[in-house]
Specification:
Layout: H1 4-11, H2 33-47, H3 56-68, H4 75-91, H5 107-122, H6 125-129, H7 133-155
Helix pairs in contact: 2-3, 2-4, 3-4, 4-5, 4-7
Length: about 160
């Protein structure tokens, strides 16, 4: 998985990345409300206890509002929800889960879609010049989970069977 600096240098030069266009294909990969709420639940239950970047009681209403109407949300809030979905999908286990989540696509496809959306959202000129707290939270979640995915791929599963 490329790191953000590689993306800025290679695929999305600063100033050339398109800002979030309400009709863009980014929102085409946005999950439906039912899946988004399930992924939010996975994030709150499995990711947040380990990765304390968000204050759940404060951000929950904004996340739910974005889930219900992503087209009218601020780009940084859309980026945060994509980061939440990315983190939740990375945290999903296919066996041993308390509550299995029925994904609309295969896990690698969802990860790639969410990664592509985050790459585009987080390198827009507006974000690079004037990042806000929500965008920085999205970036922190994304980078941390990307690193975890890379380590898992390099070293395999660290769980005992």
């Amino acid at each position: 998985m490329p790191i953000l600096s590689e993306l800025v240098g290679n695929n999305h030069p600063i100033g050339a990345a398109a800002p979030l266009d309400r009709d863009s294909d980014l929102l085409d990969v946005y999950p439906d409300a039912q899946l988004a709420l399930r992924l939010w639940n996975v994030y709150v239950r499995s990711v947040d206890p380990v990765l304390k970047i968000l204050h759940i009681p404060t951000i929950q209403s904004a996340v739910v509002a974005t889930i219900l109407d992503a087209r009218s949300a601020q780009p940084s809030m859309v980026a945060l929800t994509f980061a939440i979905y990315y983190a939740a999908v990375t945290a999903l286990c296919h066996h041993d889960c308390d509550e299995p989540v029925d994904l609309s696509w295969e896990k690698p496809v969802l990860l790639k879609n969410y990664q592509t959306a985050l790459d585009r959202l987080l390198v827009t000129p507006d974000f690079m010049k004037r990042p806000d707290v929500t965008g920085l939270q999205a970036l922190a979640i994304y980078v941390t989970c990307s690193r975890a995915m890379n380590l898992a791929g390099q070293y395999g599963s660290l769980t005992v069977s």
